[in-house]
Amino acid sequence: MATGLRLSHSNHNPKTIHSFSKPNTNSLTRRVISMAQNQSYWASIDADVQSYLENAIPIRPPESVFEPMHHLTFSAPRTTASSLCVAACELVSGDRSLSMAAASAVHLMHAAAYIHEHLPLTDRPKPKPKPTIQHKYNPNIELLTGDGIIPFGLELLARSMDLAQSNQDRVLRVIIEMSRASGSQGVVDGQYKKLGMDHDVEYVCRKKEGELHACGAACGAILGGGTEEEIERLRNFGVYVGTVRGLMEARKSRPEMLLDEKIEKLKGLAVKELECFQGNVIAEMIVGLAQGEHSHFVATEKYNESLV
User: Fold this and answer.
1) Is the pLDDT of residue 18 over 50?
2) How many CB atoms neighbour CB 57 within 10 A?
3) Spacing of C-alpha 229 from chain mean position
4) Biased-composition ranges for Polar residues (predicted)?
5) Residue 14 pLDDT > 90, yes or no?
6) Of 206, 155, 211, whose CA–CA distance to 183 is shortest?
C-alpha cells in the first residue's frame, strides 16, 4: 500500500512522491526531507516573529519600563499559537506580513499569562514543571509588567492598520478576538479554575492553551482574507490542538492521569477540521501541530548550534 508525501514550494502545484509501507532507505530519506522542510517552515515563522518583537520592544527610555518588558517578553517560552497565526494567514492565501503584528500580540498574551503564573513568590508551592523564565526583577515589577504587556500587544495591532489596504475592519475584529481570548472568557478563566484543588484538567487546558491557539488561528485567517467557514474551521482546529498540547504538558507533571484517550480523540477532531484544505502543503504542515511534531524551536536551535 502506498502513502503520499507532498514536497512543494508552491501551494498550487504540490508534487506527490509515493513510498511503500515496507521500510527502505529511500522512504526513510523522504521522511527526513519532509521533516526538514517542515522544521524549516516553522523556524522561518519563529524567526520573523522574533525579529518583529525585537523591533517593537527595544530597550529605550524609560528603561525602568522597557527593560523589564523586553526581558520578560523574550524570557517566556515560545508558544505555537503565534506560529499558527502566521500559518493560518498563509493557508488562506494571505501574505505573511499581514499577520506579523497579530502573531506578536499572541506571543505577548502568552508571555503575560506565563509571567503572572510564575511570579517569584515565596509563600506558595513551586510550580510544576519548573518555570524557564529568569527572574531578574521583584514580584511587583513582574506583575505590573505583565499587566502592561497585553495592552501593548493591542497597540501593535492598532498601529498595523493600513488605510491604503482598507484593513481596518479586519484589524478591529482581531483586537476583539484577542481581548476576549485573554480575558475572563479565555485564559483568565482557565487560570482561575486552575486554582481549585479538584479542577477539570481538560477544561483548564481548553481555556488556556486552547483559547490562545484558537485566537491565533482565527486571527491569522481573518487578516489573510479567509472565508467565514475557513475562519471557523481554523478556530476549531486551534481549540483542539491547543488543548492537546496543554494536556500533553499536564501529563508530564502528573503522569498518573489517564489522558491518552482524550488526547487521541482531540487529535482526530483537529485533523478533521482541516479536511477542506486537503492537498494544500501548508495545511499538511499545520496538521503536524496536532501530532505533536512542533518541537522544532528547541530542536532547530540545537541543530544550528551544532553546525557552528
Assistant:
1) no
2) 20
3) 21
4) 8-23
5) no
6) 211
Percent helix / strand / coil, the chain, rounded to 5 = 70, 5, 30
For residue 138, give the DSSP letter: -
> 189 pLDDT exceeds 60?
yes
Q: Output the CA–CA distances (angstroms, integers) from residue 222 to 231, 264, 267, in the order listed.
A: 6, 28, 24
User: Are residues 178 and 157 in contact, defined by beta-carbon separation less than 8 angstroms?
Assistant: yes
Cell numbers for 36:
526538514
Closest Cα to residue 101, out of 76, 82, 73, 75? Answer: 82
Tell me the average pLDDT of the chain. 83
For residue 128, give the C-alpha cell: 510544576
Question: Side chain identity at 86, as an amino acid letter?
Answer: V
Q: What is the pLDDT of residue 278?
A: 87
For residues 139 and 115, is the Cβ–Cβ distance under 8 A?
Answer: no
pLDDT classification of 290: cutoffs 50, 70, 90: confident
**If residue 225 lies in a helix (H) or strand (E), which one and from where to where?**
none
Contacts of 129 (CB under 8 A, 6+ apart): 249, 252, 253
